[in-house]
Specification:
By secondary structure, this protein is α/β, with parallel strands linked by helices. It folds into 2 domains: 303 residues, Rossmann fold; 86 residues, GMP Synthetase, Chain A, domain 3 (2-Layer Sandwich). The chain contains 11 helices and 21 strands. Strands 5-4-6-7-8-9-10-15-14 form a 9-stranded mixed sheet, with helices on both faces. The N and C termini lie far apart (58 Å). One of its GO terms (molecular function) is ligase activity. It comes from Denitromonas halophila. Keywords: Ligase. InterPro entries: AMP-bd_C_sf, AMP-dep_synth/lig_dom, ANL_N_sf.
Length: 409
């Protein structure tokens, strides 16, 4: 069997109908069970949220805002639908600290689907080197592996010599962890004259360029990656097609213009915003702060869900100019005031070590429009800025709303 379940290769229209049919119920659940969404969505009738267009009108809750929300209402900012006890198996802390609950349901983080796509199968022994301390990565992999029917050695991080000794004794066929730690283990094994039994790997938490993938394949280790967060769990995963990351079956992903909640056109780079169907931590339009883009077409592997390019940088491009913070949302507000602008990018440089900001606009050159944009910049950012017109389609498609090119040499 090449698929974790039949949902992976169903008709895309069927999947979309299923997700949208589940959406009003999840919004109703979030309003009823979490104080945060009871407040955020107070005026929203869940029964009306039956399309992506309707969903896009709801507010985005960004990860960058969650820290302050949690500080105001410990431990989860009012976003969790479960409390201490049997329904909450574990609680984790990510840097910030941000706290994340782990419900007691099997495969809570939904990582089994990604591990299966990476070749993990029932009866495998998995050597898991993700941390079991404070953060959820170790549990993410272990619970996903258990859902497939794998056994897990909880190696955790560090202690290279002891880990190699255990691998030599236990002969695991699969590895989970960062690609850099796998490289360290392999190099140490080479130095000791040891041949490891690994034939498959699932890596995350770091960049995994094709050069690293090919180097592992040359050793007989076929490694795959995924995109997941401590708040959401699995978002998208790599398949044997090696063409982008296929979106998980139990999340609804939007790509929006940074600083806004407005979806961008297919192929355009923007911020990844995710709505989960997790009843324990029901995040609605959660802004991850990561940049990506939807790839056209379907994966050659046979999975029919949409694909994203993977992690392409951070969406939070807030920049301090002349002592004032300028946010992507302020740039978006300027553009909304002037519908003649197709796309825009605020470029910040410092000729003669003096900060300067220029809004590059894809629009026909017009003196009155230029004056209006300058006035809008001044009003919305409290700073003076210049305007430069450029041809439609000439600005890079990289998700940048603010491009800081200042140098200090």
């Amino acid at each position: 069997m090449n698929f974790f379940d039949a949902r992976e290769h169903r008709d895309p229209a069927e999947r979309e109908r299923d997700l949208l049919a589940r959406l009003p119920q999840q919004i109703q659940h979030a309003k009823a069970k979490t104080p945060a969404f009871a407040s955020l969505l107070k005026a929203v009738d869940p029964s009306t949220i039956t399309s992506r267009e309707a969903l896009s009108a709801l507010p985005v809750t960004r990860k960058s805002e969650l820290l302050e929300l949690q500080k105001a209402a410990r431990p989860f900012g009012g976003f969790s639908a479960i409390k201490w006890g049997a329904s909450c198996a574990r609680v984790f802390a990510s840097p910030g600290p941000l706290y994340e609950p782990e419900g007691a349901r099997e495969n809570y983080w939904r990582m089994a689907r990604a591990l299966f796509a990476a070749g993990f199968r029932e009866g495998d022994l998995v050597h898991n080197t993700f941390s079991y301390h404070m953060t959820p990565a170790g549990s993410m992999m272990e619970t996903g592996a258990h859902a497939i029917g794998c056994s897990v050695f909880p190696g955790g991080v560090g202690q290279t010599e002891q880990q190699l000794a255990a691998m030599l004794d236990l002969q695991p066929v699969a590895y989970t962890g960062t690609p850099s730690f796998l490289r360290i283990l392999l190099e140490k094994a080479d130095e000791a004259g040891i041949t490891l039994s690994l034939s498959k790997a699932f890596v995350s938490g770091e960049a995994f360029p094709p050069s690293q993938r090919d180097a592992l394949a040359a050793r007989g280790i076929h490694a795959y990656q995924a995109y997941a967060t401590a708040d959401i769990g699995l978002i998208a995963y790599e398949t044997p097609a090696r063409e982008g990351l296929v979106i998980d079956e139990d999340v609804l992903v939007e790509i929006v213009r940074p600083g806004t909640g407005d979806p961008v056109a297919e192929g355009e780079v923007g911020e990844v915003v995710v709505t989960t169907f997790n009843p324990d931590y029901p995040l609605i339009r959660f802004g991850t702060g990561d940049l990506s883009a939807v790839l056209p077409g379907a994966s050659p592997c046979g999975r029919t869900n949409a694909r994203i390019k993977g992690w392409m940088g951070r969406a939070d491009q807030t920049t301090k100019i002349k002592g004032m913070f300028v946010h992507p949302g302020q740039v978006a507000a300027v553009v909304k005031r002037h519908p003649e602008i197709q796309r825009a990018r605020l470029v910040v440089d410092n000729p003669d070590l003096t900060d300067r900001m220029t809004l590059k606009c894809e629009a026909a050159e017009d003196a009155a429009l230029q004056a209006g944009i300058v006035a809008s910049l001044r009003e919305l950012t409290k700073l003076r800025g210049e305007v430069a017109f450029c041809a439609v389609g000439s600005l890079p498609n990289d998700g940048k709303v603010i491009d800081d090119v200042r140098t200090y040499e």
